UniProtKB/TrEMBL annotation:
This protein's record includes keyword Nucleotide-binding: yes
GO biological process: tricarboxylic acid cycle
Organism in which the protein naturally occurs: Gibberella zeae (Wheat head blight fungus)
InterPro entries, alphabetized: CoA-bd (IPR003781), CoA_lig_alpha (IPR005810), NAD(P)-bd_dom_sf (IPR036291), SUCC_ACL_C (IPR005811), Succinyl-CoA_synth-like (IPR016102)
Top-level taxonomy: Eukaryota, Fungi, Dikarya, Ascomycota, Pezizomycotina
Gene Ontology CC terms, in alphabetical order: mitochondrion; succinate-CoA ligase complex (ADP-forming)
Protein name: Uncharacterized protein
Length: 320
């Protein structure tokens, strides 16, 4: 087995793809740190977003792509290493993401491969400078994601959503992932959620209240998300099509605290901001550990609800 030079050994990673990446990428301090804040607008997908699938010819990816095309998503092709040069759903299949990038110029990629290959697929998309990468895959090894994040910090072109995310949806325009598009409609409410299940509860509440969605974004349930709640919130706070924001967090971690700090600073700078409704999933926490996310969000000006069943009436009150 080839040993990495000492300067390149930064994380111990298990997969072959990540070991190969370690040879290509020195640690971030050696290459220079690049802020990803400049690419956060890559989250604003629409009908012009050109999407490819990685793992395109698999059965579930094919079915997902067929549904997305029927919805109106602009799927332009896909990648399957052993089937390059063929077609699937009358769309071209490429052997590599770089070939796809050069040929069909995608703006986004949906990573639809097994967990053991997912980190390598994400890295390949980063190398090809795909602006938005959506990884719906769950159970990616933590050490693989450590390496992915190290690579993300060395560049400023690509933005990752996930892993373990239901994806992103601009109702009536573009679906990348598994969010049920037929349950959504274009509107004025932006939804950001760490919880996959709760994102569907929020969609249902907006539909029943008659105040539907501008953008639905699942951050992913893993411990190392590519896009944080704070980053997603900042986009919707500045989005002219979004009038109200639903923010769904979970107990544990600092994502909600960081989002609350952003809300507080945004209010101080702008005087007013859009109504933000927040729900924190989970009733229990480890004994002796303080998790005051709800209080912090409330102090920042968000309307914190105790139960998702209250969301519909809260929306009706805001828009009445």
């Amino acid at each position: 087995m080839q040993m990495l030079p000492k300067s390149h050994r930064y994380f111990a990673v298990p997969s072959f793809q990540c070991r190969a990446a370690a040879l290509r990428y020195p640690p971030a301090p050696a290459r220079g740190f690049h802020s990803t804040k400049s690419n956060v607008q890559n989250l604003m997908v629409n009908e012009t977003t050109r999407v490819i699938y990685q793992g395109f010819t698999g059965k579930t990816a094919t079915n997902n792509a067929r549904d997305a095309i029927a919805y109106g998503t602009n799927i332009v092709g896909g990648v399957s290493p052993k089937k390059g040069g063929t077609t699937n759903l009358d769309l071209p299949v490429f052997a590599t993401v770089r070939e796809a990038a050069q040929s069909v110029r995608p703006n986004a990629s949906l990573v639809h491969v097994p967990a053991s290959f997912a980190a390598g697929a994400i890295e390949e998309a980063i190398e090809a400078e795909i602006p938005l990468i959506v990884a719906i895959v769950e159970h990616i090894p933590v050490h693989d994601m450590l390496r992915v994040h190290e690579i993300l910090r060395t560049q400023s072109k690509s933005r990752l959503i996930g892993p373990n995310t239901p994806g992103i949806l601009a109702p009536g325009k573009c679906r990348i992932g598994i969010i049920p598009a037929d349950q959504c409609a274009p509107g004025k409410v932006g939804i950001i959620s760490r919880s996959g299940t709760m994102i569907y509860e929020a969609i249902g509440a907006t539909m029943r209240a008659g105040q539907v969605q501008s953008l639905v974004l699942g951050l992913g349930g893993d411990s190392m998300p590519g896009t944080t709640m704070k980053e997603a919130l900042e986009v919707l706070l500045h989005d002219s099509a979004t009038e109200t924001i639903i923010l769904i967090g979970e107990i544990g971690g600092s994502a909600e605290v960081e989002a609350a700090e952003l809300l507080k600073s945004f209010r101080a700078e702008n005087g007013m901001f859009k109504p933000v409704i927040s729900i924190i999933s989970g009733r229990t926490a480890p004994p002796g550990r303080s998790m005051g996310h709800a209080r912090v969000l409330q102090d920042s000006g968000a309307r914190v609800l105790d139960h998702p069943g209250l969301l519909e009436n809260e929306l009706r009150a805001i828009f009445s």
